[in-house]
Write a structure and sequence with these properties.
Elements: H1 2-19, E1 22-29, E2 36-40, E3 43-47, E4 56-59, E5 65-68, E6 72-77, H2 80-93, E7 107-114
Antiparallel strand pairs: 1-6, 1-7, 2-3, 3-4, 5-6
Length: 115
């Protein structure tokens, strides 16, 4: 019985994805070191995060389009799982470690999800 509901939800998401598409909007937030975001060969590359010398990378799944403007990132596609996973990868790539997250609030955050 539970699987019927699961498959029904997947089919509804497929129909909604083909007709409307899924869009995640993300915001780049920094206080001192300006974060530079670019898209290269199926990866989102984040440079200068907290002044780090090496770039951080996040994988783009499937047929997802990632558009980068100044401080905004838009993740678009027809597959809900791929769009969501790509946005989660970008958010996870810039997770602050070994510092107080109440003070170091730099990063890329999901602002809105929708169709």
């Amino acid at each position: 019985r539970a699987l019927v509901g699961t498959f029904g939800a997947h089919i509804r998401n497929m129909i909604k994805g083909v007709t409307e598409g899924f869009v995640y909007k993300m915001k780049v937030v920094y206080s001192h070191f300006p974060i530079k975001v670019s898209v290269n060969d199926g990866e989102v590359v984040i440079d200068n995060f907290l002044g780090e010398q090496y770039p951080r990378k996040a994988k783009i799944f499937g047929d997802v389009k990632v558009n980068v403007s100044k401080d905004d990132i838009t993740v678009e596609g027809i597959n809900r799982e791929e769009v969501g996973q790509t946005a989660a990868n970008i958010e996870k790539a810039v997770r602050v470690k070994n510092r107080d997250i109440r003070v170091f609030q730099d990063g890329v955050y999901i602002v809105s999800k929708g169709a």
